[in-house]
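dumping this here so i dont lose it
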């Protein structure tokens, strides 16, 4: 009997040893990328990965990927809740040609945060900087998105109650700065301190197709675009915005537009448009 017990103990020890590699490769809640990293690494602080795509598979849902140094970290498709932070005061970039910079294809309750990133479409050869296709909420904070042939940000959700938050972000030299164009469900968007400048199409474009889209644009600017603000449906609120030196200031085709008296809408070469409907709001 003692010999039998000793054999069982040895087998248990061997089985535990075999399981150790699986434990060692469990997903981390925080991972790191570096310009001198390697995607074969575990993406730890001392052994970072090289790309966002390499790090995301090693990052737990709800976790965070942080950039250690300035570099280009590649295009990415996001399918879960995640935070990606490029770090302040450095260039954490995504450069793409012939594709989208970042696709957000997350679950219906997932929250995705993109912060401190430069997303470069290489003078129009990229398609969309960020394509928000699904997910409970997308936060875009302190990003610079430029050079995309179609849109800096495209919202193309189909689910109910998707939410977009954009803060302190530049949308420059794209087709459209941001196009909010859900094809189903409803999307709520809050754009605060967003600069849509020098886009060949529309700076801020509320363009739902058979869906709801309520968008507030606050403390923001649309300058030197083809059109500053375009609305084909849904509801748009403009407050404390600067809409100047565009081809046309505001094009209102359908939906509801509320433009408060603290907006500056002037100096647009093809006309300022008629942004205030009904009783002027205070």
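and the seq i came up w/
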């Amino acid at each position: 009997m003692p010999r039998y017990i000793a054999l069982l103990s040895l087998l248990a020890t061997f089985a535990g040893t075999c399981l150790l590699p699986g434990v060692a490769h469990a997903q981390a809640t925080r991972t790191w990328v570096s310009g001198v990293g390697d995607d074969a690494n575990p993406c730890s602080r001392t052994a970072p990965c090289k790309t966002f795509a390499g790090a995301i598979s090693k990052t737990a849902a709800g976790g965070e990927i942080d950039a250690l140094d300035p570099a280009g970290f590649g295009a990415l498709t996001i399918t879960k809740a995640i935070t990606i932070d490029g770090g302040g005061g450095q260039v954490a970039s995504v450069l793409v040609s012939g594709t989208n910079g970042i696709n957000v294809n997350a679950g219906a309750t997932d929250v995705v945060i993109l912060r401190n990133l430069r997303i470069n479409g290489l003078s129009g050869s990229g398609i969309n900087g960020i394509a928000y296709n699904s997910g409970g909420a997308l936060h875009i904070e302190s990003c610079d998105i430029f050079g995309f042939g179609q849109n800096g940000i495209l919202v193309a959700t189909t689910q109910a109650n998707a939410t977009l938050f954009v803060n302190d972000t530049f949308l420059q030299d794209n087709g459209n700065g941001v196009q909010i164009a859900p094809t189903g469900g409803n999307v709520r968007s809050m754009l605060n301190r967003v600069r849509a400048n020098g886009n060949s199409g529309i700076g801020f474009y509320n363009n739902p197709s058979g869906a709801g889209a309520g968008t507030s644009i606050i403390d923001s600017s649309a300058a030197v675009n083809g059109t500053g603000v375009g609305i084909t449906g849904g509801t748009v609120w403009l407050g404390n915005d600067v809409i100047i030196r565009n081809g046309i200031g505001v094009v209102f085709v359908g939906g509801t537009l509320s433009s408060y008296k603290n907006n500056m809408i002037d100096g647009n070469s093809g006309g300022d448009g008629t942004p205030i409907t009904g009783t002027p709001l205070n």
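Residues 74-266 form a domain with the Pectate Lyase C-like fold (CATH 2.160.20.10).
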